[in-house]
Specification:
The complex is a heterodimer. In chain A, 46% of the residues lie in helices and 14% in strands. By secondary structure, chain A is α+β, with helices and mostly antiparallel strands. The longest helix of chain A has 26 residues. The mean pLDDT of chain A is 96. In chain B, helix 1 runs parallel beside helix 2. Chain B has a domain of 51 residues. The two termini of chain B are 14 Å apart. The chains are: A alpha+beta, B alpha/beta. At the A-B interface, helix 3 and helix 4 of A face loops of B.
Chain lengths: 492, 85
């Protein structure tokens, strides 16, 4: 089954025996839970679109292992075109779902491991790459969704893993056995965790020898014994428990995050891809981070939805012709397409790694993500400006359908006579959803901190910017000798 | 009957509804054109339906075959006129 359908994906999740807690209770049925289900439907979209001829070019690829047609989310980038298509896929799915579709993180983990396992073998004589490729083939052949689990809780940020008062604040090896290892710890903010078949664990920071027990990477079935998922809350999440759909804003899709606790979980050796090779932990983090910073191409697609909603709200208010509204929409598009430039540029300027995998341009991926930490906030501010205060003062759908109040809402919330109050309320709820409701988790705060907080990108920009070349050019143009030797007045 | 295979671009940010356009083409050319699968053994023409000017549909697999590129709905009108004569 190289490519599952959306229905097959949903059924495959029902076969998992996940231990999931939400609001203090263990869930019996994760797939049909009303709060989680929209997020499952967003992942299902990645399967559905792969079967549509009008998206085939972006959504599918040819496996470099088997030669079979596969879902691009399980693909290892073989050329620049693959990297560009990944960015385009992110925009497409962001626009079709209006939220985080959760599947990019696993793709980024697979690609990073394809590079780093090869480099480890080459330098250390280990056998991780062949082990990884076998695992990759399993993922591709079964079209699995993988959670890429990197972020540890981290405890005291001023201390390295081995000096933490509680050793479990970074995930680590607690025991080595003949057939595998036992690990303990947790991974925070895990997007799409309970919609995943597999969890791919990676270290969260560069490490030294003293931290070698924490330098571990492996993959587990999502329902492996000892794994517990604790669902994160989202603003307005319990609206999904209410009657009706209007107040949800996005009536089809959503995202989710969870804290994933691994309490003495056994990992067989064939699923271990890094074991105490601390000197490669930083490389794995950097490769994954670069890919994942590119993945924020998805926010361009979500931005498309927000811009479309803002234009619609303006039309419903009969103000779309006002010059300041037009200019605000131009600004939103300017910001959104600037984001698109970054994710296309870092892909187009990618390069081939020794393993054969293509990497994005790391500097440009960090520039792109730095923009993503800012522009969606400004786009959201403008969207709220255009939407007006009604977006947050509007009564509920139940008030609209109640005979006593519905007539008043119809009367007073009709702005454009051709548009029913119901539709005006729908578009405002969507803007609310994206800018301060459940989807704001993905569009705003995830844009800030996902794939690394802003300062992480600034460190990389500082490290990677070609400063010497900039200085050489500047000095040459104003007559400074390139070797910078002291010049006397007589020299001049 | 002209056998036509439809090859879409990936549709990351299309400027028109490509699927609806292909349906309109098929409806207008009913009886003159038959839409067939891309792996059909006798395709007379590959119609590349592109969502924007970038026109990035992967066409290398159709080397040697006759390809007609449509980038705008206006291109489809021209194509229909040509077939209808």
């Amino acid at each position: 089954m190289p490519m599952m359908t959306a229905a097959q994906y949903e059924e495959s999740l029902r076969d998992l025996n996940l231990v999931v807690y939400m609001f203090g209770k263990q869930l019996d049925n994760v797939v049909d839970d009303p709060i989680i289900r929209p997020s499952m439907q967003a992942v299902a979209k990645t399967y559905e679109l792969a079967h549509r001829p009008e998206h085939d070019d972006i959504m599918t690829a040819t496996s470099h292992i088997t030669g079979k047609k596969i879902n691009r989310f399980t693909h290892i980038h073989q050329n620049i075109d693959d990297l560009v298509k990944k960015s385009k896929m992110g925009r497409l799915l962001g626009r079709e779902t209006g939220c985080c579709f959760q599947r990019c993180v696993g793709m980024d983990a697979l690609n990073a491991l394809s590079i780093v396992t090869y480099n480890m073998d080459h330098q250390l004589g280990t056998q991780y790459n062949s082990r990884f490729l076998k695992y990759l083939e399993y993922v591709q052949e079964n079209d699995l969704t993988c959670d890429g689990a990197m972020t540890d809780p981290k405890g005291d940020r001023s201390l390295p893993p081995h000096k933490q008062p509680d050793p479990d604040l970074y995930l680590h090896v607690v025991k080595e056995k003949a057939n595998g290892i036992i690990v303990r710890g947790a991974k925070a903010h895990q997007t799409g965790a309970v919609n995943s078949h597999e969890i791919i664990v990676m270290p969260t920071i560069a490490m030294r020898k003293e931290d070698q027990d924490y330098a571990v990477s492996f993959a587990l079935p999502a329902d492996a014994e000892g794994i517990t998922y604790i669902m994160g809350r989202q603003s307005c999440d319990t609206r999904k428990l209410e009657e009706g759909l209007l107040d949800r804003g996005n009536i089809l899709f959503g995202g989710h995050e969870a804290l994933v606790v691994l309490d003495d979980v056994f990992v067989p050796w064939e699923r271990v891809f890094m074991y105490k090779e601390y000197e490669f932990a930083g490389q794995l983090v950097e490769k994954f981070a670069a890919y994942h910073r590119q993945s924020y191409a998805c926010k361009v697609g979500v931005g498309d939805v927000l811009i479309g909603a803002s234009q619609t709200a303006a039309e419903y208010n009969n103000v779309a012709g006002a010059s300041h509204i037009k200019d605000k929409l131009i600004e939103m598009n300017h910001l959104n397409e600037t984001l698109y430039c970054g994710c296309i540029a870092c892909a187009s300027e990618g390069s081939k790694e020794p393993s054969g995998t293509y990497s994005v341009n790391t500097l440009l991926a960090n520039i792109h993500k730095q923009n993503v930490t800012r522009f969606p906030y400004e786009i959201s501010r403008i969207a709220q400006d255009i939407a007006g205060g009604l977006m947050v003062t509007m009564p509920s759908e139940m008030d609209l359908t109640a005979p006593a109040t519905g007539k008043w809402l119809e009367k007073y919330f009709t702005a454009n006579c051709d548009v029913p109050a119901l539709n005006r309320m729908r578009i405002l709820r969507l803007i609310e959803n994206l800018t301060l409701g459940t989807a704001a988790v993905g569009y705003l705060t995830e844009s800030m901190h996902g794939a690394g907080s802003p300062q992480a990108q600034r460190i990389m920009i500082s490290r990677l910017a070609n400063m010497k070349e900039k200085q050489r050019a500047a000095k040459k143009l104003c007559g400074i000798e390139t070797d910078d030797r002291k010049q006397t007045t007589e020299d001049r | 009957m002209l056998k036509v295979g439809i090859k879409y671009c990936g549709g990351c940010n299309p400027y028109y509804d490509r699927v609806a356009l292909v349906k309109r083409i098929a409806d207008r050319l009913a009886g003159k054109v038959k839409i067939v699968a891309l792996d059909h053994d006798r395709i007379d023409l590959v119609l590349a339906v592109e969502g924007c000017n970038t026109a990035c549909a992967e066409l290398s697999q159709f080397d040697g075959k006759k390809i007609r590129v449509i980038t705008y709905p206006e291109d489809a009108k021209e194509f229909i006129q040509e077939i209808l004569g």
